[in-house]
Design a protein that fits this description.
Elements lengths: L11 H4 L2 H9 L5 H19 L2 E4 L1 H16 L12 E4 L26 H8 L6 E3 L27 H8 L5 E6 L5 H7 L2 E4 L19 E6 L4 H9 L7 H7 L2 H4 L7 E5 L10 H15 L4 E5 L9 H16 L12 H12 L2 H21 L5 E5 L17 H6 L4 E8 L5 E7 L5 H13 L13
Parallel strand pairs: 2-3, 2-4, 7-8, 7-9
Antiparallel strand pairs: 1-3, 4-6, 5-6, 5-10, 9-11, 10-11
Length: about 450
């Protein structure tokens, strides 16, 4: 039985985009202090029940907003996130707050510095209310955060606190990470927008490391139009990053040739048999919708057969790397969840040759997906197998992990509702480093009413 218990209306962060809020700040219709008050109001209204924030400092947030107001009053230019509160997953270092990574082993740990991403956010005027709930070490053991659509359901994997903070209108955007499906799944289950950029585009300095060839920083937003703004703020810039810089600034690469339609692949993937029938029906109706657009050519196609190895390759890399990086924590198994202890046991049984072979397989799959996009501008698939499962159940396999393993940029959109009224999403992907091209395609769909302006709302 569903337990829908909150109406998220009357939040400025659900009503307006960041651009619109900044216009209000510029026109003196609202101040940074009032923005902080709006954030505080929502957190104090819902945090006790939904357990979104693991640490939060009201007075510090007010101080940050006062600093922003002083800056604006001195005549300085409005920055990209001036006075905008942004949630931070509790695996990123923060100067003002502990970084506890969902584990009692790290309770109270204060790193004394900001992760590069947090620095970029602050540099662009963002306010940091605190840290959002995460799974233990950003892996599988579910955290304390509750799904606001139905508290009996999972809010998703490790970035769930950030997704829920956006869903409840506490903040307009929040930062998370994805090593398998930890941006896309919470976005899908909580009905918000999620973005996992191309691997390596967002710097990982000053955050928890779990798996070197997979860990990818991403984010959630309540409004579609805010996706690219957050992306541009936190990504790496400049010639010190020649591969991504050249790719992102290649106009031919990042724009569809004028006069030809968008060429798009719909892929079911090898996870299709795990998908609920209602989700299959929803995505097939979505295909028909897009097919009705004159400027899009859709082809339902199969991925290269080797992609079916993706989940096995991922698990080998994941388990081995986790068992290596968490050797010290392994010395106190009583303070580690059964799920993590099991991963550690599996990882220790994987030989170096098996691990290195899986890394080579990952490189092959990356190359195969790069070649796949010789024919297509973008692809799309279901985000998850359907609505959020019960908290005690394991999520069914879905395509999210495939795009993580192959380093593709992804946008997850809150398009669908299950027969029980619970949200789930569709995800779009493009060639590695073609993030701006992906945004141009999703812009096109948004402008034609195929994608929603904002979240799949929580109903009272």
């Amino acid at each position: 039985m569903k337990t829908k218990t909150v109406n998220t209306g009357e939040s400025i962060f659900l009503e307006y985009s960041i651009r619109e809020i900044l216009n209000k700040i510029q026109n003196r219709e609202i101040s940074p202090a009032e923005m902080a008050e709006k954030c505080i109001e929502r957190i104090e209204m819902y945090n006790e029940k939904y357990k979104v924030w693991v640490c939060y400092d009201k007075m510090n947030l007010i101080e940050q907003s006062n600093t922003a107001a002083e800056r604006l009053n001195s005549g300085k230019t409005l920055r990209a996130l001036e006075g905008i509160p942004i949630g931070i997953k509790d695996i990123f270092n923060t100067y003002e707050f502990p970084t506890q990574m969902g584990s009692p082993l790290w309770k109270g740990f204060t790193p004394g510095n900001d992760a590069r991403v947090v620095f970029y956010l602050k540099q662009n005027g963002a306010l940091i209310p605190g840290k959002t709930d995460t799974a233990e070490f950003a892996v599988h053991a579910i955290g304390n955060c509750m799904n606001p659509h139905d508290i009996t359901r999972t809010p998703g994997t490790s970035s769930s606190g950030s997704a829920v903070s956006v869903s409840l209108g506490m903040v307009p955007a929040a930062v998370g990470t994805q090593t398998a499906g930890s941006i896309v799944r919470p976005a899908s289950f909580c009905g918000v927008y999620g973005c996992k950029p191309s691997f390596g585009l967002i710097p990982r300095t000053g955050m928890l490391k779990t798996t070197d060839s997979l860990d990818t920083i991403g984010f959630f937003t309540s409004k579609y139009e805010d996706l690219e703004r957050i992306f541009e703020v936190i990504r790496v810039h400049g010639s010190n990053y020649p591969l991504s810089d050249n790719a992102l600034n290649d106009e031919k690469r990042q724009n569809k040739p004028e006069g030809r339609p968008w060429k798009v692949a719909f892929v079911k993937t090898h996870t299709w048999d795990n998908t609920f029938d209602y989700a299959k029906e929803s995505i097939m109706e979505f295909v028909k919708q897009i097919n009705g657009l004159s400027e899009v050519e859709i082809e339902e196609t199969e991925l290269p057969a080797e992609i079916e190895k993706a989940h096995d390759v991922h698990q080998t890399i994941y388990d081995k790397t986790l068992s290596y990086y968490f050797q010290e924590e392994l010395q106190k198994p009583e303070l580690i969840s059964p799920v993590m202890n099991e991963i550690f046991k599996r990882g220790r049984k994987i030989s170096l040759d098996e691990f290195l072979n899986s890394l080579r397989e990952q490189e092959k799959l990356i190359h195969l997906m790069d070649g796949f996009f010789d024919k297509y501008d973008a692809l799309f698939s279901l985000s998850t197998a359907g609505e959020a499962p019960l908290r005690e159940e394991t999520e069914r396999p879905d395509p999210s992990l495939i795009w993580t393993l192959t380093h593709l940029p992804v946008v997850c959109a809150p398009v669908f509702s299950s027969p029980d009224g619970l949200p789930f999403g569709v995800q779009f992907a493009s060639r590695k480093y073609n993030d701006r091209l992906l945004f141009r395609f999703t812009d096109y769909l948004k402008e034609r009413g195929i994608l929603p302006e904002g979240i799949n709302p929580v109903k009272g």
